[in-house]
Amino acid sequence: MSERDTFNRHLLHPWAYLPALGDDDSTPVIVRGEGVYIYDEDGNRLLDGPGGMWCMQTGYGRREIADAVSEQIMQLGYSTGFFVINPVETELAQRIAAKTPGDLNRVFFTTGGSTAVDSALRLCQLANNIKGMRGRKHILTREHAYHGSTFLAASVTGKERDKTAMDTWQECVHFLSSPCAYYHDPDFSEQALCDYLVQELENKILELGPENVMCFIAEPVLASGGVIVPPVDYNRRCCELVQEHGIVYIADEVVTAFGRLGHWFVSEEVFGMTPDIITFAKGITSGYVPLGGFAVSERFMASISGEQSGGNNYSNGYTWSASPVSCAAALASWDIIEREGLLDHVRQTAPYFQEQMRTLLDLPLVGDVRGTGLMAAVEMRLDNDAAGEALLAQDYSIGELVDNYCHQFGLLVRPLINVCVISPPLIITREQIDDMVSALRKALLLAQDELQVNA
Predict the structure, then answer these.
(1) Which domains does the chain have, with CATH numbers?
(2) What is the pLDDT of residues 369-392, one digit of tens each?
(3) 272 CB-near residues (< 8 Å, 6+ apart)
């Protein structure tokens, strides 16, 4: 057995394709990163199109973050939020509270996005139980939503094309239509689609009874579901509607927070809404170390704390909740974003990025290009009669083909079946965007030729 063949011998990766467990020797082995680039074991340079996992905001090789982590480890390498407080978690919470909308000033730290979502949902369950509303258990979510991999977070995830036999909680979870124009009637105007989707939400609330609905959880932009940007005013109208019925609105900003759209948080500044809870993770540390959490409104917490608490605890937490090392990395990343003006850079660069990505629409293999800020998706499709399992297998093969060709041209992409998602580090330049789109075009053309797709 060669050295290359041993890399996967002991590994079980996230979303592992079980029929080929341990047999896939095509997975690139990445050994270092610098700026927007990563390098494989053979020294080949790849532009990191997915930005790690939507998270590599400030780019690779940031000495400031490494130094902050090193210094924190030597000063206080661990501290538990269960019964003590550390200064760096306090400072980070203060910074977050200063940027969140409304009175979302109470911050709970977790280990990542999945645990942030799970913790927010458990807080909603606790609140209803404390208030004597134990029947209020139903959760509204959406098709193509992705909220995480813990049991509760996976249960409210709507990536319906994943082939898996894993269990989820279905009894009280309800999926609404994906807010993606590409999947709806092409004759719908944006306003008509928005009206339809909001009416669907209201109908579901009335069907279940508002008194039985706990929350509506929604990404402002559906990220891993294919970078789905809802119609204008959709997010705001949904938020106002559920809050009118006394239902908690959770904005899942695990991807969109910390600069992806050029703002610390996008709920209010981009979409004009004030949720009850905002979850976050990924870009908070620029991906260097794990950290996540949520910010919840003071009004929400006032209804279940003090004399209103019934003596209850919020019995939820993690060994590494508010890790001082993670919080130090987050503060260092925050300082870089501010010092280098990366939020302004994203807002200035995003229109060019979206424009260049849309040039790929002239390719017959490309069905749709969509996005906002520094996140975009290219959806590929073949015009044939494939359906069901055959269509899924075909779409997987398209994504794998394009992915392999992209590597040849120095680009790493993330194929979500037949959708390539792009979310590069926030420091990306126009020249690097040009290189990225050029490489993706070359890969799509080769895949197109191999699949015999005609214009």
Answers:
(1) 4-58+341-450 (3.90.1150.10), 65-339 (3.40.640.10)
(2) 999 999 999 999 998 878 888 888
(3) 233, 235, 236
